[in-house]
UniProtKB/TrEMBL annotation:
Gene Ontology biological process: rRNA processing
Keyword terms of this UniProt record: Endonuclease, Hydrolase, Metal-binding, Nuclease, Zinc
Cofactor (UniProt): Zn(2+)
Protein known as: Haloacid dehalogenase-like hydrolase family protein
GO MF term set: endonuclease activity; metal ion binding; metalloendopeptidase activity
Species whose genome carries this gene: Quercus rubra (Northern red oak)
NCBIfam families the UniProt entry points to: Cof-subfamily, HAD-SF-IIB, rRNA maturation RNase YbeY
Protein family membership: Belongs to the endoribonuclease YbeY family.
Database matches in InterPro entries: Cof, HAD-like_sf, HAD-SF_hydro_IIB, HAD_sf, MetalPrtase_cat_dom_sf_prd, YbeY, YbeY_CS
Top-level division of the source organism's lineage: Eukaryota
Length: 583
């Protein structure tokens, strides 16, 4: 059985998985839908209890096997140890015991990695009442049962002093691991039933077993079927309970019909909404909806409420990362960021852009402002780390380009008619009009460049943080980059974020350096952050983060240092990284 934990205890953890060591059991999935029930009937393995003290000093129970029927345990592949996972107990519910009345002991547990979701907690409390009600009705139905296909190993429950049953609520990741460990099937199911009844032992207690329900899958099915999450979990619980009482729809068409009939009868008698799981599976098969089985580690959109964040912060680049090739934030990326923020994750922009350009880009998808990820009052790293804003959006660092370097750059632009844009905090300056200069505003959302048609006037206009040359990708790689790498040496640094632009920034500065400054200011450690980028200017940031993800459209140098390679910025790469790695 699942561990008996203190009611609604949120401050301690108890070492246990499905609280048993077991040989591998046969398992048969429902064939109508990929995430249908799997019923596992265990071989006879009697379980004893061993007390231990967990790290908070609370006494809990874990299980140790002792075989009563001579069966040998299989090698490690066939075992599931009680220390692999931890649970939180909602409450142990005992039905009111009258003289000679059967005592129902029901344990409702929440898997430790399932976050404190108010709806799930409320459902767990409801199950304290609902499960005993369903058990009593189901037991009453066994007395005069005329079903031909039901396994009658459990028939007259009146011969027992009490009945024990555990219900565990978990997410897809946990139930998927159970399926992989016990059934050799690497995907999530909506419910697993595990029988623990051993008729030969003649015990006074009927240990029915465990029902494991993925609330994540249940939530999706509830939405598809037009009822509430509570309705769906009740349906899954009834289905799992009937399996423990000997019904098995996989035996034959007759067995399926009998189990479907009993499902419908129980739900109707209890006054609960929804069809039985078997009928719902047929309806799903015959509808236009087609569920795509998820066989990788990517969480589904809308599912993050069922997972705890692995990181407190996500540092994200803009061009080539959050922005696609059209310099737009896709709806999928925007939804993923909002969902991550709703789970308490803070998103920080680290970019070569100026802050106004980032605000303008994210305003289009409702991610700018007080409740967004960027505003004039939020922290961030801008202009390749040359300006860093901290708490309340106050400037905590600024580094300017050497005026002598600026003079050389301006003269080169003027004499060779190569367009440039000089960045001074929130303003953009240039020497002459050019379509490529205009694109910095129209495509990349930077401030419209002010034309100052004189090198000396431009030098006197403002302190400059960085300068960008614009040309074709070929012109940048074959002419501009080799020339300025040689000309500047250790006086300034050349950086590329996109192929058709070359940036000149102060020597010894970088986006990664700006990220370090901000982490120190906020009191954040590198272990708390996940970083996403694509360009060479992101390398230091990705190396700094606990998990650095380079998108597939990124440079080879960037991908070489990353912990993981994500899909491209035109394939919602940021959303994919969040759903795959952040939770």
């Amino acid at each position: 059985m699942l561990p008996r934990l203190s009611p609604l205890l949120r401050t301690s953890t108890f070492p246990a998985t499905m609280a048993r060591v077991m040989p591998r059991a046969a398992a048969v999935p429902l064939s109508h839908t990929p995430n249908a029930v799997a019923f596992v009937r265990l071989p006879s393995a009697r379980l004893g209890f061993v007390a231990n003290v967990n790290r908070f000093g609370f006494v809990s129970q874990s299980l140790k096997p002792s075989l009563s029927d001579g069966q040998g345990l299989s090698p490690r592949r066939g075992r599931v140890w009680a220390s692999q996972r931890e649970y939180r107990k909602v409450r142990r519910r005992a039905g009111k015991r009258k003289e000679k009345e059967l005592e129902l002991n029901v344990s409702i547990c929440i898997e430790e990695d399932l976050p404190d979701d108010p709806e799930v907690l409320s459902i767990a409390e409801m199950l304290r009442l609902n499960v005993p009600m369903a058990m009593k009705l189901a037991f009453d139905g066994l007395k005069d049962s005329a079903y031909k296909t039901r396994d009658t190993a459990i028939n007259d429950v009146g011969g027992f002093e009490s009945v024990e049953l555990s219900v565990l609520l978990c997410n897809d990741e946990f139930i998927r691991k159970l399926n992989k460990e016990w059934r050799d099937e690497d995907h999530a199911t909506d419910v697993l039933s595990m029988s623990e009844h051993v008729p030969e032992l003649k015990l006074p207690i009927l240990m029915l077993g465990d029902i494991v329900i993925s609330v994540e899958t249940a939530a999706r099915q509830a939405e598809e079927r037009g009822h509430t999450l509570l309705d769906e979990i009740r349906i899954l619980m009834v289905h799992g309970l009937l399996h423990l009482l000997g019904f098995d729809h996989e035996l034959s068409e007759e067995a399926e019909a009998e189990m479907e009939k009993e499902e419908e009868l129980l739900l109707k008698s209890l006054g609960w909404k929804g069809k039985g799981l078997i009928q719902s599976a047929y309806d799903a098969e015959n509808s236009a909806y087609s569920h795509k089985e998820n066989t990788d580690d990517r969480k589904k959109e809308g599912s993050l409420r069922f997972y705890k964040p692995k990181f407190n912060y996500i540092f994200c680049d803009m061009d080539g990362t959050l922005l696609n090739s059209k310099s737009q934030v896709t709806p999928a990326n925007a939804r993923a960021l909002k969902e991550a923020m709703s789970r308490g994750v803070k998103v920080v922009i680290a970019t070569g852009k100026a802050r106004p350009a980032v605000i303008e880009s994210l305003k289009m998808v409702d991610l700018a402002g007080k409740d967004g990820i960027v505003s004039e009052f939020s922290p961030g790293v801008f202009l390749q780390g040359l300006i860093v804003y901290g708490r309340q959006g106050r400037e905590i660092f600024r580094r300017n380009l050497d005026p002598d370097v600026c003079r050389e750059v301006y003269l080169y632009s003027w004499e060779n008619k190569v367009p440039l844009v000089a960045f001074t905090k929130d303003r953009c300056l240039t020497l002459f009009d050019h379509p490529l200069v205009d694109s910095v505003h129209t495509i990349y959302h930077e401030s419209k460049a002010e034309v100052i048609p004189s090198v000396e006037s431009l030098l006197a206009a403002a302190e400059i943080q960085k300068v960008i040359f614009m040309d074709t990708a070929e012109g940048v790689s074959t002419t501009l980059r080799p020339y300025w790498s040689e000309a500047l040496r250790d006086r300034a640094t050349v950086v590329q974020a996109v192929p058709d632009m070359l940036e000149i920034v102060p020597h010894g500065t970088s986006k990664g350096g700006g990220v370090k400054i901000l982490l120190d200011h906020l009191g954040i450690t590198a272990k708390e952050i996940m970083a996403i980028g694509d360009g060479e200017n992101d390398i230091e940031m990705l190396e700094l983060a606990m998990l650095g993800i380079a998108l597939s459209n990124g440079s080879e140098k960037t991908k070489a240092v990353a912990n993981a390679i994500g899909v491209s910025n035109d394939e919602d790469g940021v959303a994919d990284a969040i759903y795959r790695y952040a939770f």
